Queue: 2 jobs
Job 1
Amino acid sequence: MTRKPVLRSLQTIVPDTVLLQEQVRDLFAQQPGLGRLAQRIVTTSFNVSGIDRRHTVIDELSPESDVTDSIFLDAHSRKLHEPGTQARNDIYAREAGRLFVEAARRAIDVDPDLQPADVTHIITVSCTGFHAPGPDYEIVRALGLSPAVQRYHLGFMGCYASMPALRAASQFCAADEDAVVLVVSVELCTLHLRSSEDPDTIVATSLFADGAAAGIVTARELPSAVAGLQLDRFHTAIAPEGEKDMAWTIGDTGFEMVLSTAVPQIIGKTIIEALRPLYAHESELAEAYEAGQVGEKVKHWAIHPGGRSILDRVQERMNLSDAQLHPAREVLRENGNMSSATVLFVLKRILEDQASRDGDRVSAMAFGPGLTAESALLTIIFQPES
C-alpha cells in the first residue's frame, strides 16, 4: 500500500524588529497631507484588525531605531519616504535570502531522521520580491545540498501559495517514494507598505507583516515518532467575481496590494460550494458537510488569517467554534498577515496544541488573488505508520 506523504519538522521565523499595532496606526494616521476621512479609515482599520503586533525587516520603522541613513522613514519628522521598487527589492534580496536559508536549516536540523543529503527537491515560495539566482539556489549552496536537487520556485501567487507548494510536494512524493521535499516560504510584506488615502491600500497596510516558515514533506518510512501532518487531499476553487478585489501588481514605488473590503463577503458567499469537493471522497465527512456539521468531524481548522473579518465569515459559514478558530486568530494577533507563510504558522500552532491527538483531522484554507481559495484535508500523525 502506498504511504501518504507527511509534512513534518515545521519551523517558523519572524524578524527581530517588532511593530506594535497602535504605534504603526499613529505613524500612518499622522502622515502629512492625509485627509480627515483617510485618517479615520486608518484608525478604524488598525483598531479592528485583530492584530497586537507585527514583525519587520525594516529596523528604521521601530520607534527605538537609531538608523541615520533612512530609506523608509525620516527619523525626525516621522514622514514616510517613497523608495523605488529597486530599493525595496534590494533589501528583499538580502533579507529574504537570509531567512530562506535559516528557515530551511532549522527544518532539517530539528528532524531526527533526515539530513541535508536526503533532500531531493526544494520548493520555495514568495510573492514579495524577485532575484536570480533565487532562494532555491541559495539554500542548496548554504546547506551543502546536492547540486542535483530539483528546485522549484512559486512566485507572485499571493497568500495561498504555500498550499500549492504542499500539493506539489505531495505529488513529487507520490511519483517517488524516496523523495524528501523541503518547502520554504518567506514573505517580506512590510517592504511594500505605503501611505495612501485609498481605502484598499489602507486595509492592506493595517494587516501585512514579515515572516518565514519551512517544513519537510516525505512519504519515507522513518523510525522516529515526530509530530506531522499527513497530506490527504487538496482542492482549488475560484470565485471570479472577486478578481478585482484581491490583486497584487508591481508599481514604481513597490508592489501594490489591492485588498477590497468586499473580500470577506465574497468568501462568505462562495465558501460552501468551494469546499464541497474537498470532503466528497469520504462519505462521513460528505454527509456532515451537507448537514452543516463538518466542524464536528474535523477538529482543527488552519484558516489563513487574511484579516479578522475573513476569519469571522469563515467561522460563521462553517459553523465553527471559537476554539477551532483560536490558532488562526492567535497567529493574526501575534504576527499579522505574513502572506503565504501564515498558514504554515497556523499549522505549526495546531501541531503544538496539547489538545491535538494522533488521528485528528485538519482542514486548511488560504485565499489569494483571483479570488482563489486553496484548501487541504490533513491528518495529525504523532507516530510512525506501521
Job 2
Amino acid sequence: MDLEAQIQLLIDHAPHDGITPQLVTAIAPVLNAIAKKLRHPQYYILQSSESNWVLTTLSNRANPELEKHVIYAFPTLQDITLTSSAGLDPQIIATAVPVTHILFQMLALEPVDSIVFFETPGKTTNAVEVKRVDVQKQIQRKLQNNRSSRQVPPNIA
C-alpha cells in the first residue's frame, strides 16, 4: 500500500468526532515526509496477545541509569526470528503495520522514546531511529503554520 493510501486509511478510520479526521489530514504531510525517508511501506511490529506493542528498554553502557524505551520495526517477518527471542514466546506475535500508522501510533504511546526501523532485511546494522519527541516537534510546527496561515491579516480592510 502506498503512503497516500495509508494516510487515507488513517483518515477513514479516525473517530468521527469532527476533529480527529481534520487533525490527521493536517499532520499527514509530516507523517508522509518521515515515512519517505524509510525504505519500506510496512514493517513488522512485535505485539503481545493483548495487541500491545512490545517495548524494549535500552540502557547506556557508560551510564546505566540512562534508559530509553524503543519499539523495533522489522522489514520482514524472517528478521524477527533472526534478531529477537520473540519466537520463543508464544504470547508474542508479529503484525505487519503500515509505516505511517506506526508513526501515528507512536504519538500516543507515552512510554515510547523511539521507534527503531531496521532497514536492510537480514541485518541489524542498518537501522533508523525515529524519536517521538522529534515527530511531535515537527507536527507542532506544522499545526502552528496551518493556524497562522488561516488567521486574517490585521490590514485586510
